[in-house]
Each structure stands twice: as structure tokens, then as C-alpha cells.
Write a structure and sequence with these properties.
Layout lengths: L8 E2 H8 L3 H9 L20 E2 L1 H15 L4 H14 L12 E3 L4 E6 L4 E5 L6 E2 L11 E3 L5 E5 L6 E3 L9 E2 L6 H9 L4 H7 L4 H17 L1
Antiparallel strand pairs: 1-2, 3-4, 4-5, 5-6, 7-8, 8-9, 9-10
Helix pairs in contact: 1-2, 5-7, 6-7
């Protein structure tokens, strides 16, 4: 199984990475108590406990971002259903860099011989101009197949999530050193410069790990 689809994150781990409540994340993949079905599909299937893949984490992170921007869950469902039923090649649209929002609706970029437009997929398929809703996925990198390969977890691109490093947990970019390891050592009272030296890092790298871990744990 390719790294991006390999189940590896328990719900609590994924929730900390994304910065959202674990109960909400579980609901998105398991379904609501009132009987509404799940909106996302775990690559681990119906396993107990629920285990998510890197792709699942990326999907959930951007679904969380859309929800925070004001896109209703009803519109999310409509968009995913529309894409699934009518657009070949967009099996997992939340992993695509051209799945965008203006805060109310969701769009997918479409191209023809003369122009690029955005198709509103959460409200029936109306074409709109890109300038009105353009938003770039600055935090994602993609491989040659167009699949997400790396997720940057901070604005300065110091902390990343990459299934090829650190068992898929957050690491300091360019080192593969897990942020939770650095955080726990600092929490135990070790000197930051000593920690950095042990891992051939800069003190700023350790500080970035601590900052990210603190923020992620508070948000989850």
C-alpha cells in the first residue's frame, strides 16, 4: 500500500495534528449519532479503533478549514456527491489543489481550450470566474501523480507531515526529527541548545517544534 493511504493515525493523534476536537473528527469518519452518514471514508475501513491515513488527515484538515470559513456541511455533502457522480478523476476532491471556496460554496477548477473557470459543485454546477474565489493550497506539496506528498503544518514551513519521515508524525523539515520528541525533552527541563546538538539541529528548530506542539495540543 502506498504511504499516503497506509492507516497509521489514531483519532487522537490526527486531531492533535489538525488542531480540532477528536469527537468531531471521529464523527466525520464514523457518522452522526442521529443517523446521518459519515462525510469522509477512512482508508483503514471500519477498523476499531478508527485508524486514519495521511490522505485522510489532509482531507480532514481541509474540511475543517472549509467549515471554519463558513461552508456548511450540507454544501460539503452536495459538493462531494456532485463530484463523485459527475466528474471522473476527482474521487477524492479534498486532496486536490483546485478544490476551492469563497466562504459559502465549493468549486473545482475546469479547463477548456479557451479559458479556465470554476465549477460550483456545492450548488448545482454554475460556472464562475476564478478571480472571485481563487485560493491556493500553500501548505500542500504534490507528487508527480498529483497526490499530496507533504503537508506543512506552520506558516514558516518549519514543521511538516510526510508519511516517509518520522513514522508519519510531525517532524522538523530537513531533519526527520519528530516534534513530539523535542517537545518532551524540553518539557522535562533539558536545555534547548543541548537538545539541538543531540539531533544536529539549530536551537530555532527546537523552538519551532515546541511552539507547534504547544499550539496543537491546546487546539485539540
Amino acid at each position: 500500500m502506498e504511504p499516503g493511504k497506509t492507516p497509521r493515525y489514531l483519532v487522537g493523534e490526527a486531531a492533535t495534528i489538525i488542531g480540532m476536537p477528536a469527537a468531531t473528527l471521529r464523527t466525520w469518519f464514523r457518522g452522526w449519532p442521529n443517523g446521518k452518514p459519515a462525510v469522509l471514508t477512512p482508508d483503514g475501513g471500519g477498523s476499531t479503533p478508527l485508524v486514519l491515513s495521511f490522505f485522510n488527515v489532509v482531507e480532514a484538515k481541509f474540511l475543517d478549514a472549509y467549515r471554519r470559513k463558513g461552508v456548511s456541511m450540507q454544501r460539503v455533502r452536495r459538493a462531494l456527491d456532485y463530484v463523485s457522480e459527475r466528474m471522473a478523476g476527482f474521487e477524492r476532491p479534498l486532496l486536490k489543489p483546485d478544490f476551492e471556496t469563497d466562504g459559502k460554496a465549493l468549486f473545482i477548477e475546469v479547463n477548456d481550450s479557451e479559458r479556465t473557470s470554476l465549477l460550483e459543485v456545492s450548488g448545482g454546477g454554475q460556472l464562475v470566474w476564478p478571480e472571485a474565489v481563487r485560493q491556493h493550497f500553500q501548505s500542500l506539496e504534490f507528487d508527480h501523480r498529483g497526490d499530496p506528498s507533504r503537508l506543512w503544518l506552520d506558516d514558516r514551513h518549519e514543521v511538516m507531515l510526510d508519511p516517509r519521515f518520522g513514522w508519519g508524525l510531525p517532524v522538523i523539515a530537513g531533519s526527520g526529527v519528530r516534534t513530539d520528541v523535542l517537545f518532551e525533552r524540553a518539557k522535562a527541563g533539558e536545555d534547548l541548545e543541548a537538545i539541538a546538538e543531540d539531533f544536529s539541529l539549530e536551537s530555532a528548530d527546537v523552538e519551532a517544534a515546541i511552539t507547534w506542539e504547544q499550539a496543537a495540543r491546546q487546539a485539540a
